[in-house]
Amino acid sequence: xxLRPKRLxxxxxxxxxxxxxxxxxxxIFIMVMQFLFKYINDLVGKGLEFPxxxxxxxxxxxxxxxxxxxxxxxxxxxxxxxxxGEFYELTAMKSSGISLLRIMMPLIILIVVMSFGAFAFAxxxxxxxxxxxxxxxxxxxxKRPAFNITExxxxxxxxxxxxxxxxxxxxxxxxxxxxxxDHTERxxxxxxxxxxxxxxxxxxxxxxxxxxxYSGRSYNELETxxxxxxxxxxxxxxxxxxxxxxxxxxxxxxxxxxxxxxFRSNMAMMSLAMLEHYEDxxxxxxxxxxxxxxxxxxxRTYYNYRRxxxxxxxxxxxxxxxLFYTLNFDSLYQTxxxxxxxxxxxxxxxxxxxxxxxxxxxxxxxxxxxxxLRKYQIExxxxxxxxxxxxxxxxxxAPLGAIIRKGGLGMPTxxxxxxxxxxxxxxxxxxxxxxDSGLTPLVGMWLSSAILLPIGVWLTYKSMTDSSLLNxxxxxxxxxxxxxxxxxxxxKTGLLK
Length: 497
Hints:
This protein is of the alpha+beta class. The chain contains eleven helices and six strands.
């Protein structure tokens, strides 16, 4: 029974939706975990609350969407058309007179819409997500580790104090064998407190740590006047107590939120309009530097010699008897006395040195601004290349899935990862070369797309012509033909009897 176009479109969309949702979530999860493992040392042990962790993961997930979307589309397209080919559904559609492009048409429209959506996301949502994620990560990195004393190990997490306990009761949180070394005055271990037991609690506003100790003693060495010529001594004082409380300020243990405007100058936190504004500003500044350099060299260096202009009358008109002639600088230089020759050479050398210094300074300023300009241009092209990659990966995955006719997560995952790694490596290489001014940002950022687009077109053509590109039996048959041909040649030439 021939499928109607609307039913065919719905079938393709439903077949694509499931693998896309699954692969997108898997890719997002892997990328988020990879980022968390990278910054695991900055996140663990900080005593972060669940809302803070959830907020950070939410912003992190949003920042990974533009990178995960192309890979998810590639894997989903491979799985969808691989499943259709494996269960001969694609063959049935083609036998009913429907071309491959017509079969792919609803998904092509969907991917085009997703590409525009990816650009809108990268232009409007991604800068905000990057800004909030980076600022929150900065605040988490500045936060001190949570207060946790391990038995038998000195704890130096509180500035100005070093603590050690022999044991503690996990149920009552009572600690035993307490030693506290006060280094707030930075004079060594002059003040030491030892107690049999005690416990800690944080004040209601989380600003202070209240350390209450029982049955202890304090040792304090008091420094005398150092002006004494015979030297100075440290009188010893010992205080016994049954109960004593120490109030310690916990500055840096809370999560202080930084003003997000401090991070807005980063290129990844800007929209397309902001990037283009900065691009125009840097182009204008670079043009002013080049024009100023040319103007300065022409007016102050090239024509910096004494010359006498034509005589003028009271009405500032040139007199009729003015004589115009051409100067020969070599002949003029030879007519000068020896002392004036030396002064002329020294003046010329001085002008040359000043010009070289001015050129060097202008080049340094121009190079720094060009480097910044290229970074803004790279970010501008990135917003387009990531969206265009969605379309390219679909035209690689869909025909490739129709050719290999293998669904599931096995073969499609391997092929998708290989293509994605090739695209990622080429993209990063082109971006780095563009940063180093080896390529223009346009060429460097679009290099991976220019390489993979012909591959997608070629695979689509091969799939439309029912090519057996990845059929192992085809290569085995060709190898057998070549082997028989060589055997025939060897028999004919007498090398094999």
